[in-house]
Design goal:
alpha/beta; two-stranded antiparallel ribbon; 8 helices
Length: 278
């Protein structure tokens, strides 16, 4: 990006604080540090999130006979509470949660979000509509601004504002957070060219030589993505929306290195109880 040379005067006591963030890699010098601090102050912020927590959690039975999957405890706190913490710590404080199966237990625990430092509203799902169809009902909530979508059974260490910077940088309709897994055959493997997602390989055979990058179940979407949701009773982001965006070169992927778990099976839940950092 083109830059213009300027001469500026700063208070002498501020310079040590500016110099502290210079690491020689991400922040190369004093000029770069000042530019970075200005960007942090002036940039748009990701402020709204939609959590999909309406599924029945069939694969997690018998646990989910009595509670929603997103309320399963990890170190004495429900999974969904970790997600709320992640959002709040990344300055995302306006949240809508899709609830369905045993949704009252989610509402009773979180209420309006006040005691968790966020503002929560709820979208109640009377019957299963998939992961895409509910997007049609949140147009007023997103207010013509990019928004985050995250599944309610995800545990992740991720900087969501850096993810948003990536999204803003490529200027297209949708971004997918990507995690690397040792055994990708249980997931949809992402086909990448640079940062651009070309498509997905669903549950590849173990001997296939493919990327180990998979969708982390965390997305940043521009409101125009809602127009891609098909007019049918049941639709899925992964099957009906994201592949179409990829075909139109509107879908980009952002790998991150932090811990990530998709708590979709009792086996993974057992791993989470042992490995997830409190």
């Amino acid at each position: 990006m083109e830059r213009k040379r300027l001469t500026i005067t700063l208070r002498k006591d501020l310079l040590p604080q500016v110099d502290e963030i210079i690491d020689g890699a991400k922040i190369r010098n004093r000029s770069h540090a000042i530019e970075y601090l200005l960007l942090q102050s002036l940039r748009p912020r990701l402020s709204r999130a939609f959590i999909l927590a309406g599924g029945e959690g069939i694969k997690m039975r018998p646990f989910t006979y009595e509670m929603p999957k997103s309320m399963l405890p990890v170190h004495n706190r429900p999974i969904l509470e970790y997600i709320i913490d992640l959002l709040r710590n990344n300055e995302i404080r306006e949240i809508i949660i899709l609830v369905g199966h045993l949704g009252e237990k989610i509402k009773n625990h979180f209420g309006d979000g006040t005691k968790f430092g966020v503002k929560i509203s709820y979208l109640e799902e009377k019957k299963a509509e998939g992961t895409a169809k509910p997007l049609l009902k949140i147009k007023k909530f997103v207010r013509n601004q990019p928004f985050l979508v995250i599944y309610g059974d995800i545990l992740a260490e991720i900087n969501l504002q850096e993810f948003f910077d990536f999204h803003q940088g490529h200027g297209n309709l949708a971004s997918v957070a990507l995690s690397s897994v040792a055994e990708p055959s249980s997931y949809g493997v992402v086909k990448l060219r640079g940062d651009k997602i070309l498509g997905f390989e669903e549950k590849p055979k173990k001997n296939q030589k493919l990327s180990r990058l998979v969708s982390a179940g965390i997305y940043i979407l521009n409101p125009k993505v809602i127009n891609y949701v098909p007019n049918k009773a049941y639709s899925m982001l992964e099957e009906d929306v994201l592949p179409q965006l990829a075909r139109e070169s509107q879908l980009f992927g952002w790998p991150f290195e932090g811990q990530w778990f998709d708590v979709g099976t009792p086996e993974i839940y057992e791993r989470v109880l042992k490995e997830w950092k409190k």
